[in-house]
């Protein structure tokens, strides 16, 4: 009894209610279905993969038209014959294969990534600059040998069409294979349960074939280093005209 006459029970280890702590490790392993969605959510995941490739194709068509104006009407639209050339997939696969080979060559150092949810670290070859230099040297050699690199501009539409189709197929492969990986390998923001959004954002965090990191390769190698071919092709086109 206290000074006011109230009956009180002393707080002892026997009657004190235990404080429940959240299992942070369990929460990390649990698929994230309530993560804040990016790029406009489902609407963005539906529109971006459709409108962005169409915009690229439209801009290429406009740049090749005599007026080269976005305001021309009717807009410059390609015919089906202009979208396909058997040389386009050969060039595309050859370029990707070249950089896949440069990726696995023992050039540069190997660094470890961040600690993953299962406590491991992945290793990444830091040889992108070497690949860039080798690509530049090869293109300069082709120019010196008189290779018709200027004709690449005539293949912009079929090259873009092949790249877009290949990207869709590759994305579908990555989405399907993500259902056979362990839960800790899934991206927290890409495992929402919405197929459209998960397909767009990517379910698997670090998709790999052996030690070959597919996301790391596709983000940096064929596309960004591919810009090296632009000045080389422009130089070839200029020299072929004059």
UniProtKB/TrEMBL annotation:
Its main location: endoplasmic reticulum. It catalyses: 4,4-dimethyl-5alpha-cholesta-8,24-dien-3beta-ol + NADP(+) = 4,4-dimethyl-5alpha-cholesta-8,14,24-trien-3beta-ol + NADPH + H(+). Pathway: Steroid biosynthesis; cholesterol biosynthesis. GO terms for molecular function: Delta14-sterol reductase activity. Residues 1-36 are annotated as: Disordered. It comes from the Eukaryota. Catalyzes the reduction of the C14-unsaturated bond of lanosterol, as part of the metabolic pathway leading to cholesterol biosynthesis. This is Delta(14)-sterol reductase TM7SF2. The lineage of its organism: Eukaryota, Metazoa, Chordata, Craniata, Vertebrata.
